[in-house]
């Protein structure tokens, strides 16, 4: 199996149901972040549209990701989500072991100096 799994989803919420959708996202974050193998599970609004969201999930491996997809937290989220969306979400799943953190291209941040 591949190493780390990162899933990025674009979620298109309904303006009139914003508070309900955000409450569902908060509850789901709290529940899922405790699942085995969960490294990151965060929802965020976009800058230009308060009803457009990015959902970033990071899992230790495929087994953890698959277990999440079968979990009660995921099932509950999916069932509650349907009536809160303007259109279906768009997801991309990335699998692999390598993570690259680019070196800064500018001068060092003085806040990080000793």
Identify the strand order in the major beta sheet: 2-3-1-4
Our Rg estimate from Cα atoms comes to 17 Å
Strand portion, in percent? 25-35%
What is the N-to-C succession of helices and strands?
EHEEHHE
Question: Helicity range of the residues?
Answer: 25-40%
The major sheet is characterized as: 4 strands, antiparallel
Mean pLDDT: 91
Structural class: alpha+beta
Shape: globular
Total beta-strand segments: 4
Distance between the termini: 42 Å
Number of helices: 3
Low-confidence stretches: none
Q: Your description of this structure?
A:
By secondary structure, the chain is an alpha+beta fold. It has helices at residues 18-32, 62-69, 72-81; strands spanning 5-13, 38-45, 52-59, 85-95. Strands 2-3-1-4 form a 4-stranded antiparallel beta sheet. A hairpin with a 6-residue loop joins β2 and β3. α1 (18-32) packs antiparallel against α3. The protein is globular, with a radius of gyration of 17 Å. The mean pLDDT is 91.
């Amino acid at each position: 199996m591949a190493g780390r799994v990162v899933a990025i989803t674009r979620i298109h919420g309904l303006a009139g149901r914003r508070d309900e959708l955000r409450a569902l996202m908060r509850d789901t974050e709290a529940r899922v972040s405790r699942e085995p193998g969960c490294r990151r599970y965060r929802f965020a609004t976009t800058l230009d549209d308060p009803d457009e969201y990015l959902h970033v999930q990071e899992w230790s491996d495929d087994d953890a990701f698959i277990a999440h997809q079968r979990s009660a937290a995921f099932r509950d989220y999916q069932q509650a989500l349907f009536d809160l969306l303007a259109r279906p979400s768009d997801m991309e799943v990335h699998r692999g072991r390598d993570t690259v953190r680019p070196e800064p291209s500018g001068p060092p941040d003085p806040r990080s100096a000793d």
